Predict the 3D structure of the following.
Amino acid sequence: MQKKAKMKKGIAGLAFAIATLSVDDTTQEESVSYGAVQNLVTTTSGGREYSLDPRGESQDVYADSVKVYGESVNDGYDIDLTILSMLDNVIRKAWLNMREKSNGIAEYADGEEYPYFALIIYEDTSDGVGLTSVYYWCQASGRPEDNGKTAEGGNFDWAFPTIPIAATPRPTDKLVRMLLPGKAK
């Protein structure tokens, strides 16, 4: 029996869970807990594409033209996540600290740090099993770019904002990501 190649075919869904870092008053030990997993609604904030740029690099020390020391630094990833739209107020409040008002959602320049969350990307694979990637300590590293233009000739012009996310090592154990077989939400 021939095995199929397990290649990524496409994003099947996105989800997140808000992360909370706590410090025990007695032991001063840090722990991270996560809220409920919230699957993003495909029709309002479905995943279009993502790119990962590794943070950190190998550092080598040479003496007398010989490598005497080497170290690999893993500071996680810079993720650019392109989604269908940022009209989903769940993302705006959970990732960008926007606040619900009686007549809409408001963005303030109050200097408050963006919250941390686990990002979950479900993907289809060529073998039908799927792949789930979990990035455990993420934070929006900037506001998403936004754009708009007139519809010409009666055609709808789709908007696909990209939100920059820093996926860094979790402070308690330095875990960056986990790759899990399957795509069950």
